[in-house]
Amino acid sequence: NTNPSCLWSSWDFDKARGHLMAIQRQDRMEEVYRRGIIVASNVPRETYLEFCNREPKVSVKYRLIDGKVIAHDLPLDPHSTVQGVLTGEMYNWNHRELRVMGETDITVNMRDVYRPDACIRPIQRRQPSQRQAVNPSGNPYPTMVIEIGSTESLNSLHELATGYFSPRTNIQ
Description:
Blueprint: H1 4-10, H2 13-25, E1 37-40, H3 45-53, E2 61-65, E3 68-73, H4 77-94, E4 98-101, E5 106-107, E6 113-114, E7 118-122, E8 144-146, H5 154-164
Helix pairs in contact: 1-3
């Protein structure tokens, strides 16, 4: 069933949150290769984006990778503190010319939609055709994205760079 209103009841975000909390309690000094917890598979991009538009309060951070909804991090104090400081610094740096945004869905290819912790886009950036837009909003891609990982592994964060710099995007 790909109806977004029905997906919420089938996606077990609370179970994913429990798994991510268990990972966080493990030895934090050891780099473990973690890609996140799969909470749904075979999800079309359009269905995922519609779900995000109606998004109920979800207790984990998630993204769509290869048709799978993956819970990858927890919005706990260390994560949200860094996110708040960075977005505040970026806004203060040049808010007249830059649009500083929090979590924004970014289409990186036909099956992947990432949601970075913060991103920046010049206010005067040229409006793309709908086919080349960052998401259904029709806006251009940001020129900078920021990912903050507290539960997610460094390797997993590095893999995201490939998507962010894919041929479909024009992130610099």
